């Protein structure tokens, strides 16, 4: 007898789950299905699980494919279950390809092709709120996006579009999603769009997506002209669509905690914020060869300006830039100096100069030092005059950290505005205004 085991959350049960269980059953004679507990999903960083464990188990049971259902409670359980139940085959969808190869030492590992299309008819009849998201762009950041979507329940990657059809097909094959050569077909197949193309193309793609009635999550910097940002937000509002700038730091749990502590009065009134982010880039990269839209500030400025405007607000009195440029006139190191009535801020970015990635928030009673990389906030300390007086805080930043913004984007689509304060439209418009000013002075 061939014994097969598979695991999953099986939240908002859909045809992807059904087809996976059906094919898992066909692999052998006896199928065991492990359904994750809320606690385990929390540990592994899966967000937004809606159905209770009982409902999820019941949905798996109703398919009739499972001969036995077990509960998955902890990391390491897969190995123990394989031994305990004498399993011959471990199987899971191809969105996990490679991830469970280590189990090959104990049984056969089979990745079954994930279901690419979750039909809207099925979702509508079952009143399920699963958003199908399409990706425009096939670069590095788009690569990081897909595994993170898989860790947010209620959203599914539908497919990819890129003007360069070849790279779109390659990308789609790698991630087992659909690729679309016609942008109209792409829009027909999705409810929401993630834009991960070069900066200067964002405006057109956002506009087109909104005009097709799609919610938009766009990589930073969202656009490069203030009037474009205002126009797009206005359009989105008038058409009840969500337009969302993806600055992952703003949505991460550690950064939210940091902002709460910084603005709680613990360090008194805040007078200075210094944020630095440098990344030594390959000289042949787009960031260092695109003389119009490349450079350190357009690439990293959204991150370093973020804590300054979150703490002091968008109404600064003055902003001034200092840059070191390469032989082509492109900024490889930039400092933006902010002046507020009662405070100062410095946002430092580098693509050709390396420095400590620090964030220091100074107040009238003490200061906060956030460990590098502060833009993936995990650990920070509150210091006072007495050097022995130190309070320590930490939080999680899992994987590439895009799951937090995806989760908040999804909540907003579902009508929950609770997380809107993390990066307001005013914040995004101000960030654009700053980018525009920098480009006017430096290009
Ligand atoms: N699945 C699929 N097609 C989809 C969506 C999901 O084939 N469109 C598969 C997944 O690959 C997985 C199963 O359905 O094998 C359950 O998916 P989820 O409920 O999302 O669970 P997941 O987070 O993938 O957990 O320990 C848990 C496992 O690691 C899998």
Automatic annotation (TrEMBL):
EC number, UniProt record: 2.7.7.15
GFO/IDH/MocA-like oxidoreductase domain span: 264-368
Keyword Protease recorded: no
Cytidyltransferase-like domain mapped to chain residues: 5-125
GO MF term (any one): choline-phosphate cytidylyltransferase activity
InterPro entries for the chain: Cyt_trans-like (IPR004821), Gfo/Idh/MocA-like_OxRdtase_N (IPR000683), Gfo/Idh/MocA_domain (IPR050984), GFO_IDH_MocA-like_dom (IPR055170), NAD(P)-bd_dom_sf (IPR036291), Rossmann-like_a/b/a_fold (IPR014729)
EC category: transferase
Keyword Nucleotidyltransferase: yes
SUPFAM superfamilies: Glyceraldehyde-3-phosphate dehydrogenase-like, C-terminal domain, NAD(P)-binding Rossmann-fold domains, Nucleotidylyl transferase
Keyword annotations from UniProtKB, A to Z: Nucleotidyltransferase, Oxidoreductase, Transferase
Chain ranges of the Gfo/Idh/MocA-like oxidoreductase N-terminal domain: 132-246
Pfam family name, one: GFO_IDH_MocA_C3
Family affiliation: Belongs to the Gfo/Idh/MocA family.
Protein name: Choline-phosphate cytidylyltransferase
Organism: Paenibacillus xylanexedens
